[in-house]
Amino acid sequence: MNHSPAASERSLLQEFAAAFPQSSADVQIFRAPGRVNLIGEHTDYNDGFVMPAAISFDVRVACARNKSGQLVMRSLQQSQTETFSVDDQSPTPKHDWTDYTRGVLLQLARTSHRIPGADVLIDGQVPMGAGLSSSAALEVASALALLHTTERTSDPTEVAKLCQRAENEFVGARCGIMDQFASANGRSGHALLLDCRSLEFSYVPLPPNIAVVICNTMVKHSIAGGEYSKRRAECEECVRYFARIRPGISSLRDVTEDVFREHAGGLADVLLRRCRHVIRENARVLGAAGAFARDDIKSVGQLMYASHASLRDDYEVSCPELDIMVDLARSIPGTYGSRMTGGGFGGCTVSLVAKGSVDEFRTQVRDGYERATHVCPEIYLPDIADGAGPAS
Fold first, then answer.
1. Is 88 one of the annotated active-site residues of the chain?
2. pTM higher than the cut 0.70
């Protein structure tokens, strides 16, 4: 994450030539960014609204076509070379880093994009297990690289949908569309207001005097774990309850605040709280979009704090370290808002901070968090980046 893009590309090409000398003349590099979600957590798989932004930490995939009928994979972050048949229509997941690219390969084959064989070298610069979508970035970069070997292209939104299917069906994580969509469709200096039902979206300009600061608790998380799937199942149970009352309801997106208030008494307490989070988080996303449009960053910040409280108390996906980080941020002058970001159970917070206050923010958060937890956090100040494409 400390290398310039040009230096990273030169280094990656040199590594590729050493690993795959027979195909290095035809190598191309594709990049896909991670993302940070400003507001709208656990709403994407409920057909709701989210506001992510692509960040300048990315995954780069160097790829060249081969004629072996094999997908040959290496990663700069891993020590081994892995080889798989491109014609295997019933592959078995290995439950490791290769599954993301292999899942994409399988989805491409199912959509009539036959890959003749490819040599692939991966350089991942998105912190893993931090809730910044390292897996989605790998999937999207892999999709663009493998598509290039077929001499075909695809619309960014179609790439995002294909990569989501890869993670749902092969990796086994029941994620929504947000992560892949933000990686594919990001725009420098902008967040995306995304409707996860229609996939309609608009770009939200971010104020130039505000920094997006990401604080890593160093507590690892994985959305392939059981708690994430449990939350999704709880939401589905809520939908079944409300659909019996109002037949037109097909997701929690359809449950209005009035309907919720009228009928929430029939839900078990835990389901009531899950449902309340999703309904009100959707409202917070739309409220934040309106506040950004008015340049009312103070209101955006208050919505972020409310989002974190809901994720902590109603959705129960925070953890003590995330709560400490948000409380620290809130106490520092120049901080407009802060909340956990990503699936939860660890990972990162995102804060909106006046640019003139960033140095003091970093010092106070680092020192305060280390005093409270005896762990030194990582603090990132990424650029808000363009979406995936060929490396420049």
1. no
2. yes
